[in-house]
Amino acid sequence: MGKIVRSDINEEWAHSGVVEAGDFVYIGYCVGNIGGTIEQQIQGAIDHLEKRLNSVDLELDSVVQMDCLFRDIWNIPEMEVAIKERFNGKYPVRKSIQTEFAHKGGSTGLLFQLDAIAYREK
Fold first, then answer.
1. Under 8 Å between Cβ of 70 and 97
2. Pick the residue with more confidence: 106 or 20?
């Protein structure tokens, strides 16, 4: 078994943004455009995911699973539009969850976050 590699570390939050373990890469807390519309935040979160994937030489098509967190679960259709646009038919398994985010922006701040698992082919 290979070693576990952690990167994009935030010491204040005690959080790793990317963890490589074996053939899998775990990416957490992808957000973007906080304070913007739900569409802007979804695109920003996917941009953040893509940036983290690129940091370990992977692309969006390597994502096999996503957890999508919403302040308002009824915004799933906006996410589906973005996924169709960005993943080019190589869709990951996903689940959507509604949550109250513990974020300083309150109800007008963070509206969407995603976490993902990617697979690194040998």
1. yes
2. 20
- The model's pLDDT over 10-29, given as tens digits with 9 standing for 90+, comes to 999 899 999 999 999 999 99
Contacts of residue 75, defined as CB under 8 A and 6 or more positions apart, other chains included, come to 38, 42, 111, 112
Per-residue pLDDT averaged across 42-64, rounded? Answer: 97
Whether 60 contacts 86, CB under 8 Å: yes
**Do the Cβ atoms of 33 and 44 come closer than 8 Å?**
yes
The span from the CA of 113 to the CA of 69, in Å, is 5
pTM: 0.92
Q: What is the mean pLDDT of residues 92-109?
A: 83
**Structure token digits, residue 7:** 């990167």
CA distance 59 to 56: 9
Largest CA distance in the chain: 44
**Pairing of the two strands 63-70 and 93-98:** parallel
Contacts of 56 (CB under 8 A, 6+ apart): 7, 18, 20, 25, 120
